[in-house]
Amino acid sequence: MPTSKAHRRLAIKSSALALLGAGIFGGLPAIAALAEPVTVTYTCVPQGGGNSVSVPFEMELEAPYTTPTPSSTVTLSWVINQPTSTASGTPLPALSSIAPTSTIGATGTISPSGSALPSAQVTATAVATNYASVAARSPMPLATMDFVVKPTATGNVILKGAGFSLSVNGTVWYNCAPGTGGGPSMTLTVATGTSTATTSASNSPTTSNSPTNTQTSSSPKPTKTTTHYKTITPSRKSQTPKAGADTGFGGDMGPDGRIFILAGGALIGAAAVGGLVMRRRSVRKG
Fold this sequence. Notes:
Layout: H1 4-33, E1 38-46, E2 53-62, E3 74-81, E4 102-113, E5 122-130, E6 145-149, E7 155-168, E8 171-178, E9 185-190, H2 196-207, H3 209-215, H4 257-285
Antiparallel strand pairs: 1-2, 1-8, 2-3, 3-6, 4-5, 4-7, 7-8, 7-9
């Protein structure tokens, strides 16, 4: 038979497993909401001519964590990274050496589709500063592009990346285009909600109530009210001892305790004497 300690250990383990399971399943929506980079192969052609390069870029379209609302401005990012290893594919090489503080630029095109956003293409741009020297034919540094959309209604919008160009110090080095499957894509959900502007507007009538309360306040009423004040002084009788300070002996405390002590002592003495007398009489008679 399991002991009470065994039952207690079993209950603790069961509770721990339940909490772990709740954390895992409760965290699934948050984990699923995070976008994951995808590998998309682009064919990049040097601007000045030369052989094209097929590069399996690691790409990701990132949206803000808050759900956008209609007529709100939403800023998104297009992240492009070189292949993580040579086994994954050949990285895009630098056409020449790149000095520190050189400007790395990128310009891309995003194609939206969905009723919540106009179907016109959106331009994504990036300008970043490179702070490390890059040798010729080494992997070229890339910049993250940002683009802005403004939904007009609620619903889902599919955003899909198209071609992009890469430049160094304002000079285009590569023009890159995706295959038939296109570039990276994401779904942007536009929903109704309480935005900051809506909240402040709904709160404004509440704040305007303070002047109304001030106008209807009863500040003039105290001038019409007669207030009577009555001060009651409690009566206190103080007794000052006429023969000095009250030390607890005599006075109003009644008879002195020494009288009782003397009386008791006299009674004890009388009893002792009486006992002796009675003893002597008994001895004489015997």
